[in-house]
Structure formats: structure tokens, C-alpha cells
């Protein structure tokens, strides 16, 4: 007979607790309990994906390990995903698998980046993702478990283990889960899935190797420049400025102010790129910019080195390196800037359609 325990008036099957403890013993967790990957749960997850269970979704060249559809499903179950979330997990893995994302570096580096997932399109409502209040915080199963599935796959399949192959100096909470949805009904500009050129009704996920979250607050500014200058200042801080890409997640309140005089998203990107800069001498003063004897900038390579333009160093190589989206609650002028991983351009964000193979017959 199965033993049963009592907790706060509820009966708990201790075999389930034993299964959870077994997962701990195998090192399959991120430090929090996981859902035991019972066969029925895994089969329900696999039913959402048409490819054979042994088909490779993503490969990890440095470790020589592949993530199959089955491995992704097992880890999605352990993360607590419902089957309808699985197409988002698969699309995110496919995006990370693109060469320019270079997820080995971002998952191994002392920089401690995490894959930030930004989901856009009808799937947000279809699976009940949170795009509003507390969008980066706890409380929504889809956001939390989709983001967590990515971490479990990184650890369990690709074996990027904290203290072993993941050498983050400090890391950040996004390494548990870093998954949000775009709030389309409060977005004054084209949604990301539309901007990416996907067909009507096709949702997308964008994956970005993001460092720690920066809160940007301005409750008083009522002109676009006043709000955007706060973002630009954060983006160009001495300890943060690199040639890497950036993600700007505006709250609806900030988006309303910025768009109130007709600014397009392109206008926003152009302004932020122009203003998110530091004088070359300021970066030299703190040792973050150096030149050789003939004035040539020193760096890791031609694509990485900080490049002064008229004696200023900008974030990114151009306005297109700044992704702008909208998410968060209606009340409160709090937004977010997420800097890229690495001292340079170690990872370039990637996007994929969800649940659609655009190249298939």
C-alpha cells in the first residue's frame, strides 16, 4: 500500500516526494523541486511536436551533445510546462541553435548571462502568458515554466553546470527563468512578430543572451526625450557600455509618453543609439578603452572592439542593435533595459516562428 502523509490538511503521496528526491539525487534540478518526468506527461508533451522524438532540435558543439525532441520534452515536464507551452520551448531552442547566438559562450562565461525569451503574437493569449503586471516576476505558470525549461535543458542536456562548466562570477535571477510576453494591446508600434515579417497569425520568440536587469524610472517626464534620455543614460553607464546589443522593455506608461508626439519605433532606436554614448576619454579613464601607439583601438577582434565615432563610443554598431518592445502593468513609470552578455558582441539575438516551419513544403 502506498504511504500517504498529511500536510496542512492535504494528503500527499510520499512516492511522489521520493521521485522528486530522486531527481535531486541525479542532479536534474536547478535547485528547486522538479515535476517527475512520468511517461504519460512526457508523451503528452511530445504530442505537441510532429517530428520524431529522436530528431535533434539543437546541438552544443563544445560538449558534443545534442538536444532531441524527447530530451526537450522531458525537461519541459520537469520544469512544470503544460503541453501547449512546448512549441514555444522548441522555437526558443531553435533560435538558440543559430550560430550567431553562440550560446556556449554565454552559458559558460563569468559574465553570467541567461537566455531572455520575448514571446510575441497570438500565442501569448492562447497559452495565458503574462505580458502585464509583474511581467518579469513570479506568478504566471507559462512564463515561469517556459523560461525554466530552457535552464534545465542547458544544465541537463548540454551539461553547463554551475561551478563546473558554468563559471558565472555572480549570475542573476534570470538564470532561473527569463521569459516574458510582449503586451500588444498597449504597444503603439508594430509587434515583434509583425516587425520580423512573419505571416499573419504566426507568433514568434526572440532569444537574447541577457545580463542583469536594469530598472529605468521616470515618473515626471512628459516628453519623449525626457524618458528616452533616462534609458540612454542607463545603456551608456561606464560599467555597462559595450558594442553589444540591447533590449529595451518599455512599460505602457513610458511607451505612451514616447509615442504621444508621433515617434515611431525607428525614431526611438535612432535617438537611443545617438544618446547612449560616452566620450572616449571617459572610457579610457576607467581602463575600459585602450589604443595602441598609432591610435588603433585594442580589442578581441575587428567585430568586437569599441569603435569611437567622433570621439564617442556608442552602444552597439547602430540603431538596429536596440530591440524595443512593450510589457508591464498600466500603472507605474518603471521600464527595463537589459544589456547583452560579454564585453563585446559575443552573442547576437535570434528569432523564430512558433509552431510553424516556414521552410517546409
Q: Keywords, please?
A:
361 residues, 4-stranded mixed sheet, alpha+beta, 15 strands, globular
DSSP E strands, number: 15
Global outline: globular
Oligomer state equals single chain
DSSP helical segment count: 12
How are strands sequenced across the largest beta sheet? 6-5-7-15
Amount of helix: 25-40%
User: What percent of residues are in strands?
Assistant: 15-25%
Give the end-to-end Cα distance, rounded to a whole number of Å: 53 Å
What is the typical, i.e. mean, pLDDT?
91
Query: What structural category characterises the helix and strand content?
Result: alpha+beta
Topology:
Elements: E1 4-7, E2 10-13, H1 14-25, H2 39-46, E3 56-60, E4 65-68, H3 69-79, H4 86-96, H5 103-108, E5 114-120, H6 123-126, H7 141-156, E6 179-181, H8 192-195, E7 204-210, E8 214-217, H9 224-235, E9 246-250, H10 252-259, H11 265-275, E10 277-279, H12 280-285, E11 308-309, E12 312-314, E13 322-326, E14 334-339, E15 350-353
Parallel strand pairs: 5-6, 9-13
Antiparallel strand pairs: 1-2, 3-4, 5-7, 7-15, 8-14, 9-14, 10-12, 11-12
Structural features, described:
With 361 residues, the protein is of the alpha+beta class. It has one domain. Helices cover 30% and strands 18% of the residues. The protein has twelve helices and 15 strands. A four-stranded mixed sheet has the order 6-5-7-15. Strands 8-14-9-13 form a four-stranded mixed sheet. The chain has a three-stranded antiparallel sheet with strand order 10-12-11. Helix 3 (69-79) crosses helix 7, helix 9 (224-235) crosses helix 10 and helix 9 (224-235) packs across helix 11. The longest helix is centred in the middle third of the chain and has 16 residues, at 141-156. The protein is globular. The termini are far apart. 45% of the residues are buried. The mean pLDDT is 91.
Amino acid at each position: 500500500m502506498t504511504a500517504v502523509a498529511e500536510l496542512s490538511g492535504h494528503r500527499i503521496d510520499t512516492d511522489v516526494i521520493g521521485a522528486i528526491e530522486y531527481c535531486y539525487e541525479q542532479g536534474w534540478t536547478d535547485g528547486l523541486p522538479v515535476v517527475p518526468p512520468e511517461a504519460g506527461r512526457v508523451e503528452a508533451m511530445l504530442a505537441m511536436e510532429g517530428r520524431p522524438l529522436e530528431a535533434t532540435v539543437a546541438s552544443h558543439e563544445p560538449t558534443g551533445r545534442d538536444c532531441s525532441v524527447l530530451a526537450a520534452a522531458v525537461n519541459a515536464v520537469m520544469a512544470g510546462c503544460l503541453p501547449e507551452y512546448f512549441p514555444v520551448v522548441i522555437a526558443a531552442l531553435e533560435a538558440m541553435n543559430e550560430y550567431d547566438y553562440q550560446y556556449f559562450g554565454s552559458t559558460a562565461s563569468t559574465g553570467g548571462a541567461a537566455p531572455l525569451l520575448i514571446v510575441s503574437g497570438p500565442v501569448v493569449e492562447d497559452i495565458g502568458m503574462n505580458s502585464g503586471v509583474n511581467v518579469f516576476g513570479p506568478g504566471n505558470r507559462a512564463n515561469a515554466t517556459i523560461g525554466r525549461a530552457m535552464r534545465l535543458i542547458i544544465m541537463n542536456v548540454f551539461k553547463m553546470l554551475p561551478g563546473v562548466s558554468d563559471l558565472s562570477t555572480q549570475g542573476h535571477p534570470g538564470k532561473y527563468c527569463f521569459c516574458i510576453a510582449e503586451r500588444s494591446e498597449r504597444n503603439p508600434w508594430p509587434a515583434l512578430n509583425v516587425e520580423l515579417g512573419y505571416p499573419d497569425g504566426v507568433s514568434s520568440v526572440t532569444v537574447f543572451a541577457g545580463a542583469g536587469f536594469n530598472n529605468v524610472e521616470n515618473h515626471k517626464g512628459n516628453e519623449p526625450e525626457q524618458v528616452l534620455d533616462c534609458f540612454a543614460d542607463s545603456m551608456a553607464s561606464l560599467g555597462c557600455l559595450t558594442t553589444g546589443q540591447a533590449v529595451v522593455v518599455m512599460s505602457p506608461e513610458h511607451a505612451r509618453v514616447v509615442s504621444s508626439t508621433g515617434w515611431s519605433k525607428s525614431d526611438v532606436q535612432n535617438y537611443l543609439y545617438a544618446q547612449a554614448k560616452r566620450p572616449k576619454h571617459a572610457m579610457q579613464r576607467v581602463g575600459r578603452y585602450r589604443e595602441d601607439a598609432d591610435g588603433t583601438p585594442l580589442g578581441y577582434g575587428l567585430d568586437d572592439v569599441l569603435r569611437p565615432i567622433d570621439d564617442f563610443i556608442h552602444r552597439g554598431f547602430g540603431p538596429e542593435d536596440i530591440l524595443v518592445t512593450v510589457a508591464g502593468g498600466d500603472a507605474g513609470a518603471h521600464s527595463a533595459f537589459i544589456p547583452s552578455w560579454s564585453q563585446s558582441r559575443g552573442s547576437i539575438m535570434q528569432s523564430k516562428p512558433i509552431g510553424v516551419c516556414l521552410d517546409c513544403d
